[in-house]
């Protein structure tokens, strides 16, 4: 690494000429001010071609026990091989996750630990899912700032140093009340009002800066609300669209914390994971930007309830609006314009609202039958 060697020579000369100055090694100063220790040209593109069957990427997923990590690991392991995808988190994994493929402890706030993992496992792709979501982040701003911003800085520095392809998800929460809402384009005023949204705008801009300044192969998708059956809601504003299915199956009653007419963009998890894989595999020269909107459908709580009641007419839905979550939702896009993703790398969703509802109900019916058999 030319930069490190040059800085080391300067540090050595300074220490030899001033033996009593008490200076610390210069490498520490470099880390503290968050320079990437890798010197690359501005037009560099890491891993810009598809991997052959014998040269699969070696993937690390941080925050792997959240809503998306386990599902993405399953998809990537099927494509690249079980041992080429490492899940990581600071929590103990359930038995089925632990035995499904490699899992290690990883704290994104521990720079040394992260660096050792990347080096020891020869990581080439890094998927950074560690984050505190919108409502949870508002309840603990200091922790959200630490995890979502300081942790990101560690990830960026390590990815740039080791020439990784880095994926960091963004969100509908990266927009604010002054953003155009219907539809919301890729490039517009953002100005979010939550620490989660602010941290995601920061991630988008820092990732693009590292791409232009250091040649980091940074890729980012702004996810809409993600709906999945096999994970519990995690504190997000759009989580009502997951909770309604759990409550409908369990009790036949659901109380929604948003107004019935609150329209937000949504996506079934299989579409989300496939979009992530597709943008990671896309050749670099097809990407006209580094941060894309992706979308599938847009609906209100009332529309979701009505579609679900076609299958479960006995379902009772009431509304007790949470002013904090409602204010967040009212500042977010009603619909995403994802035309750039569709034009640049061929994004196309599979699930609309009817397919989403049927798929979710099929999953819970299968779970119920398996429980009865067991």
Automatic annotation (TrEMBL):
What's a single GO BP term from this record? Answer: L-threonine catabolic process
> What superkingdom heads the lineage?
Eukaryota
Q: Which GO terms describe its molecular function?
A: L-threonine 3-dehydrogenase activity
- Name the InterPro entries for this protein: Epimerase_deHydtase, NAD(P)-bd_dom_sf, NAD(P)_epim/dehydratase
Domain named NAD-dependent epimerase/dehydratase: residues: 59-294
Q: In which pathway does it act?
A: Amino-acid degradation; L-threonine degradation via oxydo-reductase pathway; glycine from L-threonine: step 1/2
Instruction: Give me the reactions it catalyses.
Output: L-threonine + NAD(+) = (2S)-2-amino-3-oxobutanoate + NADH + H(+)
Leader sequence segment: none
EC number per UniProt: 1.1.1.103
Q: What class of enzyme is it?
A: oxidoreductase
Q: Which family does it belong to?
A: Belongs to the NAD(P)-dependent epimerase/dehydratase family.
Job description of the protein: Catalyzes the NAD(+)-dependent oxidation of L-threonine to 2-amino-3-ketobutyrate, mediating L-threonine catabolism.
State the protein's name: L-threonine 3-dehydrogenase, mitochondrial
Organism of this sequence: Periophthalmus magnuspinnatus
């Amino acid at each position: 690494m030319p930069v490190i060697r040059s800085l080391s020579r300067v540090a050595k000369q300074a220490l030899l000429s001033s033996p009593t100055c008490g200076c610390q090694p210069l490498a520490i100063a470099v880390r503290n001010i968050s320079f990437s220790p890798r010197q690359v040209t501005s037009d560099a593109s890491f891993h810009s071609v598809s991997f052959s069957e014998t040269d699969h990427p070696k993937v690390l997923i941080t925050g792997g026990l959240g809503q998306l990590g386990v599902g993405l690991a399953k998809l990537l392991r099927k494509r690249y091989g079980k041992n080429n995808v490492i899940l990581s988190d600071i929590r103990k994994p359930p038995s089925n996750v632990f035995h499904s493929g490699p899992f290690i402890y990883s704290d994104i706030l521990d720079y040394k630990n992260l660096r050792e993992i990347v080096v020891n496992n020869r990581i080439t792709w890094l998927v950074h899912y560690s984050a505190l979501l919108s409502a949870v982040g508002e309840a603990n701003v200091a922790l959200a700032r630490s995890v979502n911003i300081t942790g990101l800085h560690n990830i960026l520095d390590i990815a740039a140093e080791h020439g990784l392809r880095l994926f960091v998800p963004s969100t509908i929460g990266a927009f604010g009340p002054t953003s155009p809402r219907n539809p919301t384009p890729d490039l517009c005023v953002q100005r979010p009002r939550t620490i989660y949204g602010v941290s995601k705008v920061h991630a988008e801009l820092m990732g693009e800066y590292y791409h232009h300044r250091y040649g980091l192969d940074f890729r980012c998708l702004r996810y809409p609300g993600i709906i999945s059956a096999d994970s519990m809601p995690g504190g997000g504003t759009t989580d009502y669209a997951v909770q309604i299915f759990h409550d409908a199956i369990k009790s036949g009653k659901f109380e929604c914390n948003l107004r019935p007419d609150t329209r937000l963009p949504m996506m079934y998890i299989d579409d989300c994971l496939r979009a992530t894989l597709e943008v990671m595999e896309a050749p670099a020269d097809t990407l006209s930007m580094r941060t894309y909107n992706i979308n599938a459908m847009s609906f209100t709580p009332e529309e979701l309830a009505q579609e679900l009641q076609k299958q479960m007419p006995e379902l009772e839905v009431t509304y007790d609006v949470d002013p904090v979550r409602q204010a967040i939702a009212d500042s977010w896009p009603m619909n995403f314009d994802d035309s750039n993703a569709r034009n640049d790398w061929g994004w196309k969703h599979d699930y609309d609202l009817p397919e989403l509802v049927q798929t979710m109900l099929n999953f819970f019916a299968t779970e119920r039958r398996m429980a009865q058999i067991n």
